[in-house]
Amino acid sequence: MGDEDIPPAFVGESDLVRGRLEKLRLWRERGVEPYGLGFSRGDNTAEIKERFASLADGEESGYRASLAGRLMALRRHGKACFADLEDREGKLQLMASLDSLGEEGYTLFQDLDIGDIVGVEGEVFRSRRGELTLRVFSFTLLSKSLRPLPEKWHGLKDVELRYRQRYLDMIVNPQVRENLLVRVKTIQALRRFLDGHGFIEVETPMLQPIPGGATARPFVTYHQALGQNLYLRIAPELYLKRCIVGGLEKVYEINRNFRNEGISYKHNPEFTMLEFYWAYVDYLALMDFLEEMVSAVVGEVKGALSFPYQGRDLDLTPPWRRVTMSRLVSEAVGCEISSGTPERELRAIAAEREVPLEEGWGPGKIATELFEKLVEPNLWEPTLVMDYPREVSPLARAHRNDPFLTERFELIVAGREIANAFSELIDPLDQRERFEEQARQRERGDEEAHVVDYDYLRALEYGMPPAGGLGLGIDRLVMLLTDSHSIREVILFPHLRPES
User: Fold this and answer.
1) In 160, 248, 325, 380, which residue has its Cα 20 to 30 A from 409's Cα atom?
2) Whole-model pTM?
3) pLDDT confidence tier of residue 90, bands split at 50, 70 and 90
4) Class of the CATH domain delimited by 172-320+381-489
5) What are the domain boundaries of the chain?
6) 286: burial class by Cβ within 10 Å (0-12, 13-18, 19+)?
7) Is the pLDDT of residue 153 over 50?
């Protein structure tokens, strides 16, 4: 095939690609359309393996099966040809021969390539070597693969290429598909648990006129018809709490959030959270509920609460340690830290330990930064870290025993935050003051400070019952369940820099 015969998109490609393009042309010359409309399959590989597990070596089943999938291996041996067909459930060996297909059919089968998608019909038997096999009586080419898969023994190792071409990653790395199935099962289990406890699932806007519910930099877009900026939500919190004001009492959303922040092994600009809000409970009740929910979901999906993660043992069995943030920071720096520790002392402690700070940060923000840099990375077993400073918790209720703190906790596992929760701030006057302080922080240059949401304040003024709210990072939970170091391993299509 000369360059003049090659579609422009493939000019300059390898000889392997050129050879497959030639095969494509030959298939069509034979009157075979290499991109089919569909195939009626009655079986899958897992069903076949389970049903005929007891077949003896060399035994015929007498059962005629129909399967469809991708050819992942092809071994030609004169008058017989062996292949591995892979579908979503697994792999099964195929055997095509001159006897089973006839001369014309066998010639066509030998022209298939690894990566081609085919439908096959044939009889199940177990080979003399003990391999469960389908003897192919007929086949249909359903989709011709024009690009060769990565070489069998080296696979797809380039991490950047794996994330960029996730479709190829899923084809050649079965663990990727397994990780994604664990993600699906985790979300299903969370839904079942919450539905079973009387929560109702709702949907709130992903495009919001005011970005609220968290301290983060939003993505902004412009709506032509409304003539205004809209923001991809950084959290659904304020809308879900409007539902509590409206009398729904127990609501949740499994939601996509967007934060215009850096990308790392534990951050992606687009991520998935579970958030729920529950009237008439406080953060102490949420700690008990979170322990129950996570242990139930992990037990269902993983089959155990204790398992290895990144080469270390991890045990999620309740009860989990409960400790205040100030106690943990005090232990880390070797002196007593409390809500009353002066800012200058905290800055001196941070400077001594080379923790960078910004101008304008108050003592609560500094103490939180000390926790995040000196403590959080070292918390391996599940730990409920309680009582965060008011300064960094603009939507949380003031602590019943200390007005400088809030009734907020985070669940930290394996050095990273998994969940964040608090007794909700329902006093509209206090909330207005917190919003106004956040506005002053924005004026001083903090782009992540909360924007004043006057409609939310109006909702609170009608009266919101006491409530607790919790957000759980689904991506990070799935990282634990799949032994994944990077969040990109559990997100189907992670964000990347433009391809050069």
Assistant:
1) 248
2) 0.90
3) very high
4) alpha beta
5) 3-149, 172-320+381-489
6) buried
7) no
